[in-house]
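User:
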Amino acid sequence: MAADVVDSLREGSGLRFRALDVCRGATPIISKEFTMNVLSTVKVIAGASALAAMVMSMSSVPAQAAPAGSAPPSAAELRNTDCPVSNPLITYRVHVQDYGWLGQSCDGYVAGTTGESRRIEKLEVHANIGYLCLKGHIQDQGDDPSWSCQNGSTPAVTGTEGLGRRLEGVHIYILDSPPICAEAHVEGDGWQEARCGTDLWVGTSGQGKRMEAIKIWKQ
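Assistant: Predicted structure:
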């Protein structure tokens, strides 16, 4: 240990030392000046070691968790966020493969998913600007045999739940209202061109393609 310190002093510390060339038996005699310099160097080395240990201990402390609410919302949270409009004109929600019912959407906001290859299985729509009816085209069933119309606060509905059948297209009819628009995101096609009017069709029929998302709004 002493030899290492002496070598260190000789190579780079710049400290002066003087070793006596006098030996008593096999034990070397080192001057007081050299001893003090060695002790000072040992203190410096010890201090540096303590600082390094402190830095290492600080770096090993796990990072604190981000405050609640600071993380961006997940895709699931976004899908289940209710309509952000305080007085929506048209509200709608969809039942989606693997997810079930998603949060209510409205006035042109997307209901459903894109880029996940999940089918819409059921659709509910309610208009506060007229009287709305739906008729869907459903896998293995074809067109609904009759219209489903809103009744008071009860929405019009088309599709199935729990049968694993895709909703392929929707016929929308509205009375006593200005024109509305709808747009569907369809398997293999993406977003279709918006259709507007009081009697409109979105999606497909006879092509075996699932609807994945829909938007409906007042023109």
